[in-house]
Amino acid sequence: MNYTDTLLSSLPINFQSDDSSPVWLNKADNAWQLTATTMVAMQSVPGLMILYGSMVKKKWAVNSAFMALYAFAAVLLCWVLWAHNMSFGIRLTPFVGRPGFAMTPNILHQFAGYYVPKADYVYFQFVFAAITVILLAGSLLGRMNFYAWMLFVPMWLTLSYSVGAFSIWASAGFLEKYIIDYAGGFVIHLSSGIAGFIAAYWVGPRQSHDRQHFPPNNIIHMLGGAGFLWLGWTGFNGGSPFAANEIASLAILNTHVCTATSILVWVSLDMIVYKKSSVIGAVQGMITGLVCITPGAGIVEPWAAILMGASSGSIPWYTMMVLHKRSPIFQSVDDTLGVFHTHAVAGVLGGLLSGFFAKSNLLRMMYRNDHYGPGLLYCIFEGNPRKGLKQMGYQILGALFIIVWNVVATSLICIFISKIVDLRMKEEDLDIGDDAVHGEEAYAIWGDGERTSASIRRHIRIPSICRRQN
User: Fold this and answer.
1) CA-based Rg of the chain, rounded to a whole angstrom?
2) Cystine design at 124: which of 37, 58, 173, 432 (Cβ 3.0–4.6 Å)?
3) 3-class SS of residue 425
4) Is the dihedral of CA 338, 344, 350, 353 positive or negative?
5) How do the pLDDT tens digits run along the chain, 470 residues long?
6) For every residue of 136-172, which 3-state class applies, written as one string?
7) What Å distances lie between residue 397 and 165, 174, 405, CA to CA?
8) Core vs surface per residue 166-201: b (16+ CB within 10 A) or e
């Protein structure tokens, strides 16, 4: 027995290696990674299911929640069958990897120099992919044909999300060495915001009376779903280093500081301009804060996170509450929950601010190399602004790539699906809502739903003794 074996055998039994806990496995990192991933999964199920199901009119509660549930399940199967390798596997082109089955025998091998198995990485990246598609759905609630949605989810995951993820995050991606995107400001949020807006254009608008009057059916439940989303972001940004280390701690703190600042700024603007503090506005401000900090959560200082929160609570507020009402483009495209503003605008803002505030030592701790940054602010202090401007240029390039690719890919997907099935529901189904689409309603209290008289008559069985006799 050598010195290493003697040392290992002297450790407490729970620290010793065995067949299920090899020497390279760090149990603390593994436990945190699985916990963080499950927190992200709970942002979608039940988080966004509850948020969507309660943020829409009563007649669309079931359909909206079900779109999220279906997407979560469909993405998982597609992810392990081919999409994970397209996003993070062997390079096929500069934009995408080679499709392949992710659950091979090496699924339990050490992942890329980290102290967790590859299974953790596959699971973590799946929940990122799933929430991206579900966020996109927020633009389409209240009118998209569910059968079209069933086709859209795997196609968009394959042709759009995988390309963005591989290009910016995969080691063989053509933008990986240039773009700072800590946890998905571009790959996840900008993608979902742009794709949702483009898909909303192709699907068409809700009925006019729905578009003009679309109150939440349960604001308390909406806040519950928002709570899942906010607290789940602890795993979203805290799990991205794939270790229970200082970067994870900083990312979690920055996430909540930025979000709290964003909420307060958004609510303050509502009170100044509209003389009322809106709960829905507070939720929107929460989302923009979470989105804005995502591309820089572990690589900026807390004071920068506060400034990012102030920006995310004000700039998306302006685009949603002011510019949206004045712009013919925004008025012509029916983005149900304003995903363009909360995710595309906030995602671009976060990506650019990350390129401005990124600190060099934090970048090295996170990425273990000197490919990125530092941010423009620190380059100015160091007397080398050209280097910082170069990084800002890369950030703009990354945003433009994601925007252009999603416009093209999402349009082609919608056009293709429209040749198979209608993208938008029929008018008579839009009149009724959930009961017409799924045969179910969110609230089974007589008179409390939005059933039409035709819907009620369809479900009433008249006893034979009461029927008119010929």
Assistant:
1) 24
2) 37
3) coil
4) negative
5) 566 666 556 666 666 666 677 888 999 999 999 999 999 999 999 999 999 999 999 999 999 999 999 999 999 999 999 999 999 999 999 999 999 999 998 999 998 889 999 999 999 999 999 999 999 999 999 999 999 999 999 999 999 999 999 999 999 999 999 999 999 999 999 999 999 999 999 999 999 999 988 999 999 999 999 999 999 999 999 999 999 999 999 999 999 999 999 999 999 999 999 999 999 999 999 999 999 999 999 999 999 999 999 999 999 999 999 999 999 999 999 999 999 999 999 999 999 999 999 999 999 999 988 788 899 999 999 999 999 999 999 999 999 999 999 999 999 999 999 999 999 999 999 999 999 999 999 886 654 444 444 444 444 444 444 444 44
6) HHCCCCCCECHHHHHHHHHHHHHHHHHHHHHHHHCCC
7) 15, 12, 12
8) bbbbbebbebbebbbbbbbbbbbbbbbbbbbbbbbb
Amino acid at 172: A
How many Å apart are CA 269 and CA 228, to the nearest integer? 25
pTM of this structure? 0.91
Looking at residue 417, its amino acid is I
Determine contact, residues 291/189, Cβ cutoff 8 Å: yes
- Select from 314, 320, 389 the least CA-distant residue to 352: 389
Query: Comparing C-alpha atoms, which of 233, 208, 207, 249 is closest to residue 362?
Result: 249
Give the Cα-Cα-Cα angle 216, 274, 138 (nearest 5 degrees). 30
Q: 10 by DSSP, 3-state: which?
A: coil
Q: Is the CB of residue 127 less than 8 Å from the CB of residue 40?
A: yes
110 is written with which tokens?
Answer: 């050490």
Q: Cα(204)–Cα(72) distance, rounded to whole angstroms?
A: 24
Alpha carbon separation from 425 to 64, 192, 431 (Å, rounded): 14, 22, 10
The CA-atom distances, in angstroms, between 172 and each of 90, 95, 168, 324 are 8, 9, 9, 39
Contact assessment for residue 133 and residue 153, using Cβ atoms and an 8 Å cutoff: yes
